[in-house]
Amino acid sequence: MALILDGEGSTVGTASPAAGGDLIKVGSTESFMADVIEASNSVPVVVDFWAPWCGPCKTLGPLLEKLVRQMNGAIRMVKINVDENQQLAAQLRVQSVPTVYGFRQGRPVDAFAGALPESQIKQFLSALTGGTANPVDDLLAEADGALEGGDAEGALALYQQVLQVDQGNTKAIAGYLRALVANGQTGDAAQILSQLPAEMLADPAIAAAKTKLELAQESAGPVPELRARVEADPDDHQARYDLANALYAADQPEAAVAELLDLFRRDRDWNDGAARQRLLKVFEALGPGHPVAVSGRRRLSSLLFA
Question: Which SUPFAM superfamilies match (predicted)?
């Protein structure tokens, strides 16, 4: 992704050639003393021994770079091509690639070989830095909490901080989109979605945010007004349907599902079964393991076979 825009057209996350320039270097036998041994006296250094012909290296290398950038200066990375630095690789007993060493205080203190999953690499980097947590993970948790607590503007600012460090973070992109919708900025969310590549649109979190936007665009007013209409006339099915859409857009999926189930209970055939169709769409967007989806499917089944 080259660019994400905020509501005013300014940059939220951009690809920057200089980003991580001091944190990630291409090393060699000649520069190893300065880049790794000496540098690790000030900050831990992770060394990635790789080769152009190595398939797993093409996965591990970019993942390591991303996580090192996310550590925001708490660790540095040096990439060593073993084909061009065979003597150095032999000295460090690199028997296969990828092999990753962690240096601290001028000495290798940890290592692993092969492509590990992201969670294990995070643990490796955290241990190398003395337990430093990944700040992106902390920011994401804080942003999610702000959004769930109804602070859409605060969440936007926090997701933006993540994207400035990691522009391709799909969780942050999805959260930013959800926060825009919750803040009433549906046009801005639609603009960002139009810029995302197909592989990102296929990500479950981003697909769920897209569904949230679609539901928000279909709602016919703010939650308080729609709720007042439903309370005034409980058999106003359109108002209840619109209320469910508005509730889901406002990050209240449990309340949205409750309204749709009530609508289905009252008139399952209304508008060609719109309540059931919308419930299925919401369940798909939430994901099969989401508690609201699990409970909602169970309640829908009981109504279907009642």
Answer: Thioredoxin-like, TPR-like
pLDDT tens-digit readout, 208-233: 899 888 887 877 678 999 999 999 99
Determine whether 16 is exposed, middle or buried from the number of CB atoms within 10 Å of its CB (0-12, 13-18, 19+): exposed
Q: Hey, what CATH topology would domain 223-304 get?
A: 1.25.40
Q: Catalytic amino acids?
A: 54, 57
Assign domain 3-13+135-218 to its CATH architecture: Alpha Horseshoe (1.25)
Long-range CB contacts for residues 237-240, cutoff 8 Å, separation at least 24: 237/263, 237/266, 237/267, 237/270, 237/271, 238/271
Residues of the chain with CATH 3.40.30.10: 31-128
Instruction: Please tell us whether the domain made up of 31-128 is placed in CATH 3.40.50.720.
Output: no
Q: Helices 118-128 and 55-70 meet at what angle, rounded to 10? A: 50
Domain with CATH 1.25.40.10 in the chain: 3-13+135-218, 223-304
Find the mean pLDDT for residues 121-126.
Answer: 94
Q: Helix crossing, 237-249 with 253-266: angle to 10°?
A: 160
Residue ranges of alpha helices (H) inside 115-218 are 118-128, 135-148, 152-165, 170-182, 186-195, 198-201, 204-218
User: CA-to-CA distance for 81 and 178, rounded, in angstroms?
Assistant: 42
pLDDT number for residue 18: 35
| Secondary-structure breakdown of the chain: helix, strand, coil percentages, each rounded to the nearest 5 | 60, 10, 30
